[in-house]
Amino acid sequence: MNGPVSIEVLRQHLIDPEICIRCNTCEETCPVDAITHDDSNYVVKAEICNGCMACVPPCPTGAIDNWRTVLRADAYPVDEQFKWDVLPEQTTMAVAAVDETSNVDASDEASGIEVDTVRGSVVPPWSAAKPYVNLYTHKTPTTATVVGNYRLTDASTDSDIHHIVLDFGTMPFPVLEGQSIGILPPGASGDGRAHHARQYSIASPRDGERAGYNNVSLTVKRVSQQHGDTIDGVCSNYLCDLKKGDVVSVIGPFGGTFLMPNHPDSHLLMICTGTGSAPMRAMTEYRRRRRLKGATGKLMLFFGARTKEELPYFGPLTNLPKDFIDTNLAFSRTPGQPKRYVQDAMRERAVDVAQMLKDDNTHIYVCGLKGMEDGVLQALKEIGERHQLDWEVLWARLKREGRLHLETY
Ligand SMILES: Cc1cc2nc3c(=O)[nH]c(=O)nc-3n(C[C@H](O)[C@H](O)[C@H](O)COP(=O)(O)OP(=O)(O)OC[C@H]3O[C@@H](n4cnc5c(N)ncnc54)[C@H](O)[C@@H]3O)c2cc1C
User: Fold this and answer.
1) Which residue blocks in 30-164 are alpha helix, DSSP H?
2) Does ligand 1 come within 6 angstroms of the Cβ of 240?
3) CB 228 near ligand 1, within 6 Å
4) What pLDDT, in 10s, does the model give residues 272-292?
5) What b-and-e string marks burial along 110-144, b requiring 16 or more CB atoms within 10 Å of the CB?
6) In the CATH scheme, what is the code of domain 142-254?
7) Closest ligand 1 atom, residue 255 Cα
8) Which residues of the chain have pLDDT under 50?
9) Domain boundary assignment for the chain
């Protein structure tokens, strides 16, 4: 007599290597450490992934949202996933096994979205414009011409940050402030594979670096050192060395949540370090251009760098009218001065920050070095609690309402 069929079927979570821009968001978000990477690919460990979906909404490209039904015994191991250039097709054998066994429901593996493991919003502000994403991919990139490349930081410092303007000519490349693009650097890595794309935030507003032109600007820091070792970052050096007239391969745009609100009385609380200023510049410039058309919301900026000389956009920033933007700078390595970080500047302005936290029209944006997130969230918590706000309740609300956006790298 035949017993009940007991074939274990798995809806295996996979990442599409053709779309993934290796931004590390999924690995950081995964609450059970099921995601890992090597120099080539981001991959999911089938034996650990519980299909909680926490990594899916924050992924800027959607590469994370791929699933194959497999027999559990045949699940793709990570060593195999590391070698993929494309995802494997869905094989029919496991699907047939699901059809034949009444007691297996492969979709049970991925039920419910646990967004509570994520520290920022996974939805955009209610009034954000609808973004275009993934118009151009690794397989179908577009090109842009360099129309400007200027060093932003003082020549006396090692911090070499460039403002690079890329023009798309007649190719459509619609963007919103807060989105990013991917640059495909020429050449190949040690294993002979083409370099993967690097992601850069757009520093210009939706209507162009120059209003009415089909162009975007980027704020790129040359990577030449990491943890004390001298290294030449592939893409940042390529970009910083570009000349006017050079042509670059571009993919994107990416990002559907780190977007600015469009209602005119919305307030922006912007906190950034270094090149994290790119999206803040885009949003500020968009508001500056719209100001004459009736935008009344407040802009408050906390901007940190090691020294004044290392702060990109220092000159233009300090020239903006005080009644348009409330700018607070923090320098952590000014000779002869105590170290001051963005969270210190926020605490000094606690009364005004609390006022903004209490206002339902306030949207918070944090962008820059990975290490800043903890300090900024801690400062927001302390400021809130000192001003009779229950931070845990407010934090959950800010996330739910698309009003707390974190992008650190
Ligand atoms: C959402 C997002 C937005 C971003 N926005 C911006 C932005 O607006 N501006 C910006 O400048 N950057 C931004 N970045 C970072 C950017 O994508 C790149 O990671 C950065 O420019 C470095 O790329 P690279 O190719 O120059 O360096 P890579 O060649 O990729 O090197 C990066 C790292 O690899 C390691 N490495 C590489 N070679 C060596 C070696 N020989 N020895 C030891 N270690 C090595 C080091 O850890 C090094 O830091 C963003 C990243 C993300 C995820």
Assistant:
1) 78-82, 92-100
2) no
3) no
4) 999 999 999 999 999 999 886
5) beeeebeebbbbbbbbeebeebbebbbbbeebbeb
6) 2.40.30.10
7) 1
8) 1, 102-115
9) 9-117, 142-254, 267-408
